[in-house]
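B., you asked whether I could sanity-check this one before it goes into the benchmark set. Here's the sequence:
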Amino acid sequence: MIAQVRRTRVHTRGEVEIATHWYVGSVAPKVRDVARAIRAHWSVENGLHWILDVQLREDECPIRHEQGAANFGLLRRIAIMLLKRNTTIKRGVKGKQKAAGWDHDFLLHTLTRGLPEIEAI
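And here's what the prediction gave me:
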């Protein structure tokens, strides 16, 4: 299956941006199934990559060595997962990231959420 999607976006200054995207896949060639698969792809893009790019500024990271970049990428994804799992405050990832920087108890709770209790000997 090959699909072409054209997106039209009007910016606040009135500029019109038209982008054409091509998709190749093994989804049955029904418009509804193809649209569902494309939306699923963009939900990942918007849900994870936007946070990495905009809030954690991953693209601005000066680490370029393969292993270092991979390690820090993994740490960023773990941090996002831990922040999303913490429901003690109602904020987005950026707000929770700031809260973890300001409040050591919140940071400790975020890092240890879901871990088994360790008894002192």
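One thing to flag: The first helix runs from residue 31 to 55. Otherwise nothing jumped out at me.
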